[in-house]
Amino acid sequence: MLREFCVWLAATPFSQQIQNAFWVIPTVQIVHIVSIGIVMTSMAMLDLRLIGIAGRRQSLDAMAARFLPWVWVTLIVLLCSGTILIIAEPGRDLQNVVFWTKMTLLAAALILTATFQRVLHRNKGYWERHRAVAALLGSVSLVIWVGIIAAGRWIAYVEHG
Amino acid sequence: MFKQLLADLEATPWGTAVRESTWLFPTIESIHVLMLVLVIGSIMVVDLRLLNLTSRDRSVKELTDDVLPWTWTAFGGAAITGSLLFSSSALKYVHIWQFDTKMCMLALAALNMGLFHLGAFRSVAQWDRAPARPPLAAKLAGGISLAIWVTVVALGRWVGFA
User: Fold this and answer.
1) What is the pLDDT of residue B34?
2) In contact, A52 and A139? CB cutoff 8 Å
3) In this predicted model, what pLDDT tens digit does every residue of A44-68 receive, in sequence order?
């Protein structure tokens, strides 16, 4: 099923056009990686603040207000550039176990981030009162994001369809 | 002479190990990517502040004190991992123009930073009072830095396609 879908997608005119223009994939990957820089740094700042080892001069609310909008907006850019890369080489991604590992980690990271944000807004001062929970959330989130980046690079190195 | 140096680099135990192992190169490369995204992301935080586009309620000095130690740590990690990757095929990389240009860009970034520290940043205490408005020289340094670092990342990714 998935295999047929990949073959079909790779044969579509849009995919063919991307494959025939040598510069599209590198260019889209450059956009993708600069965007990852924005998201990863924003999340690292926030997670390190939650753990308590960075940006302690600022309140958690200020940090979240500063960085979270960048995360959500840049994620849209990542989604678009990532989709183009999948259309260009469907088998490389969709028939690749590392790609699906990355997507699972991404889903987990986004659920954690959205939960953090929801609690921050609905329950004022919760994270300041529960330092241990905050530190745990920050640590888990940080590890997941590192995993996302590592998986992203390893997509290029494993056997795929 | 230079060629011999590169050949010697390739023949070092670590150069050989990275070249011959199946998993070392991608693993070191993953760490390199993690480090470089932190470098460019954190530099953007500073550059956008210098351009007076973000974090306007924070003093530049306080912000750089918070952010730059992370930038330097990540840069150290990127430099070490990058050197290891380079040593695996040094003779090949120096012939890739994207790689050579990237190294020149890194030198330009250092020059830009040096000039900023010798120039506009020396009087930071004077222009850094709320609402802090960086002078033109500081804005220029921020804008140039932003452009250089995006180019560095672009060339770096391009090396992989060369």
Assistant:
1) 98
2) no
3) 999 999 999 988 889 999 999 999 9
Contact A30 B153 (CB under 8 A): yes
Nearest-angstrom CA–CA distance, B56 and B74:
25
| Tokens at B32, concatenated | 């390199």
Angular region, A45: left φ>0, alpha ψ -120 to 50, beta rest: alpha
**CB contact set of B111 (below 8 Å; sequence gap of 6+):** none
- Total domains present in chain B: 1
8 Å CB contact between B74 and B42: yes
Q: Which domain holds residue A12?
A: 2-157
Q: How confident is the model at residue B126 (pLDDT cuts 50, 70, 90)?
A: confident
Name the packing angle between helices A131-154 and A24-51 (round to 10°): 160
Burial class (CB in 10 A: 0-12, 13-18, 19+), A11: exposed
The answer on pLDDT for A147 being more than 70 is: yes
Identify the three-state secondary structure at position B63. helix
Is residue B130 scored above 70 in pLDDT?
Answer: no
Mean pLDDT of A81-104: 97
Rounded distance, CA A81 to CA B115, Å?
36
Q: In what helix (H) or strand (E) does residue A23 lie, and over which residues does it extend?
A: none
From the list B38, B44, B66, the residue facing A44 with the nearest CB is B38
Does B131 sit behind a cis peptide bond, omega within 30 degrees of 0 on the bond before it? yes
B153 with A33: Cβ contact below 8 A:
yes
Q: What is the ipTM of this complex?
A: 0.95
Domain span at B81: 2-159
How far is the C-alpha of A11 from the C-alpha of B80, rounded, in Å?
Answer: 42
Computed on alpha carbons and rounded to an integer, the radius of gyration of chain A in Å comes to 18
Domain count, chain A: 1
Interface test with B, best of A28, A33, A68, A74 (most B CBs within 10 A): A33
Cα dihedral angle (B134, B149, B82, A106), rounded to 10 degrees? 100
